Amino acid sequence: MNAEKIPDIIIGRLPVYLRALQRMADSGLKTTSSQELGEHVGISAAQIRKDISQFGEFGKQGTGYSIQFLLDKLRGILKVDRIWDVVLIGAGDMGHALANYQGFTNRGFRIVSIFDNDKEKVGTMIGEYKIEDADQMVEKIKTMGVKMAMLTVPAPAAQNVADKLIQAGVRAILNYAPISLNVPNNVKVQYIDPATHLQRMTYYL
Amino acid sequence: MNAEKIPDIIIGRLPVYLRALQRMADSGLKTTSSQELGEHVGISAAQIRKDISQFGEFGKQGTGYSIQFLLDKLRGILKVDRIWDVVLIGAGDMGHALANYQGFTNRGFRIVSIFDNDKEKVGTMIGEYKIEDADQMVEKIKTMGVKMAMLTVPAPAAQNVADKLIQAGVRAILNYAPISLNVPNNVKVQYIDPATHLQRMTYYL
């Protein structure tokens, strides 16, 4: 389980397995096979066996995988067997959608603060959250010790906000702004950009 | 340019290059290098050269790439040198965010219809769009000949809606519901699920 040796591409598939396994568990299943899991996630059974074997011997030949055992192992590997605090920057449409998203808590995350630089929005509510002033963002993040952020600000502001987040101690950014961020090597960035995902499919049409 | 022979992993990186190159062009740059592009997207220069070389000889040793030439080539390869019609299913928070998203048109896409099954929402507006009745979805998509859809319905409804979309002729689905869809081999699905992206980063924290 050496972080340096497991290819990032495999790490990227583990949350997909985790999501599918959770749904199997929710529907009352106890065991599964690489074949069945593969059909759920659109990845070959051989690839799944290979990916999972990177982390040890989880299944027995012929009897398949215990779903609960695999869930526990994957959550441990991905470190989502705990709850991570996440800050949300930007209270526009996407910020609202994320603030109201119900799928974080049971998957290892909770939003602890929402910041915006629009003084008209500061102090208003999104669901249970009161929008906070972006001017206090760095200090509050430092105080809270938050390591993760979701960034839903406009593209021209994104790099500047990202720099501040990193200065405040954030080490993982989920970026919704349609711009590639420049970050130090010790900071991870994931991008969510619908046009990029659509462009990945048109090639095949 | 044989669609069967270029690995999907490479196709997945091309929209990322396209986005970075577009931003370089917008800021007035005329040429770039694999080194510079790599710094923008967080991918090694060697990997970028290898990816791009799959599609022919685009750069000259020592002089780098013409950004406009590369943009034109990538748009052609990804088939976003035209405008694709896209339907949006689900008029919740995420549907609103996508309906108001400004980044589609200049990257090859336009939303043509928004459907929801909530009769209270049908007929109301999101920006310039009037929400249409999901009961008419299949027929309207067939009539319009739309091949792409964005799915923002709740997880329990997603597979059923996806089946209808495919029946109506849709061949590419951008799925925001936190569930893996079962689709035929001739249908492409991309997933946008913030918890999955966050889980991909916690491993490294």
CATH class of the largest domain in chain A: Alpha Beta
Structural class of chain A: alpha/beta
Helix percentage range of chain A: 40-55%
For the secondary structure, the number of strands of chain A is 9
Strand arrangement, major sheet of chain A = 5-6-4-3-7-8-9
How many structural domains does the protein architecture of chain A include?
2
Structure, described:
Two copies of one chain form a homodimer. Chain A has 205 residues and is an alpha/beta fold. Chain A has two domains: 71 residues, Arc Repressor Mutant, subunit A; 114 residues, Rossmann fold, CATH 3.40.50.720. Helices cover 41% and strands 18% of the residues of chain A. In chain A, the strands form two sheets. In chain A, strands 5-6-4-3-7-8-9 form a seven-stranded mixed β-sheet. A two-stranded antiparallel sheet of chain A has the order 1-2. In chain A, strand 3, helix 5 and strand 4 form a beta-alpha-beta unit. The longest helix of chain A has 19 residues. The termini of chain A are far apart. At the A-B interface, helix 1, helix 2, helix 5, strand 9 and helix 8 of A face helix 1, helix 2, helix 5, strand 9 and helix 8 of B.
Secondary structure topology:
The structure is a homodimer of 205-residue chains.
Chain A: H1 8-26, E1 31-32, H2 34-41, H3 45-53, E2 65-66, H4 67-78, E3 84-89, H5 93-99, E4 109-116, E5 125-126, E6 129-133, H6 137-144, E7 148-151, H7 155-167, E8 172-175, E9 188-191, H8 194-202
Parallel strand pairs in A: 3-4, 3-7, 4-6, 7-8, 8-9
Antiparallel strand pairs in A: 1-2, 5-6
